[in-house]
Amino acid sequence: MGNKSKRHGLQRRPPSTVMTHSVEAYSGPLPSPDMLECYNAAFAECAERIVAMTEKQALHRREIEKVFVQSAVKNEARGQIFGFIIALSAILGGTIIVAMGKDVIGLIAIISALASLVGVFIYGKRRQAHDLAVKNHGDPGAKG
Fold first, then answer.
1. pTM of this prediction?
2. What is the domain partition of the chain in residue ranges?
């Protein structure tokens, strides 16, 4: 056979080693079930401790989110109340000025207060639409 392989231009190659590399990816708050088993094998009740730690962290995160949402709702309500007081004061002041005979200045005070309220309302609605677009689509360039 050695003669045949030389006649046809074939040469014997030395044996080679094949190496394989595998990667396993897992995403989530907990390691994969296989990894949890490995943790338990290395350290008694380790998987239970990891699950308990993850549950505590999730509960903590939900509590923080709840406090944040409650705070945002209170701040929004407070802003609406203060805005109402300021607008009402401007409108009443304009009305008093009109009653005192300064019609133009009083009307300017009333109209500017109403225009400010409308402007703030429109800005708030656009901002909400922009934030919703960013949240849903991740598009920071969304018009708002």
1. 0.54
2. 32-137
